[in-house]
Amino acid sequence: MHVHKNHPSIKAIIAYALLKSANNVPFHATLQSLIGAAGLESQNHVGFIFSERLINMPVQVVPHMYRMLADEIKWAIDENEPYHFTHFLLISRTYRLSAEEEAEMQATAPQTKRQRNSAPISSSGGGVHSFHHEDDLIQKAASFTLDYGLTNVQPREKDSFGLDQGGRLMLIPAEKLPQLVAETAQVYAVPQ
């Protein structure tokens, strides 16, 4: 984001991330120090990871995508290209279910043997869920995560079909990328 800080698309992403994080003071302050006006002149470099899997693409491709990203960053550094990142910023999608929708989803979901033997899942109702499975692992690696509402969304009526969508900002320290790659490879391995 630092190398291309003057490109209109990067300026828009920076403005969007700063706007959406404004209500979370620690996260906003961190983003200001990394990608704000003064941050873009610092030695900290933030890479923006854009990852929007196609709907029918299986999650098992994710470990390979992140491994290839880590390899390409390493090769670029070896060739003295400006890829010495201190952090990675990801913007992802979420959805929110009402308490009734969440209860209905749990009631109709098939239970595996492990779920039957474990404690029942508690639901606070209206929980925020990730669109992509890998976001749960990314969120664990992130130093900051922020769920937010989308700016131009029409309110959904009680009986209407669809989901209440939102967004999620995640900031990952660069040193956690190899760990994230290894964890995605373990969790989302291709079934044998």
Automatic annotation (TrEMBL):
Domain of life: Eukaryota
Biased composition (Polar residues): 108-121
Any Gene Ontology CC annotation: nucleus
One Pfam family per UniProt: BCCIP
Region (Disordered): 102-129
Family per similarity comment: Belongs to the BCP1 family.
Protein name per UniProt: Uncharacterized protein
The organism of origin for this protein: Hericium alpestre
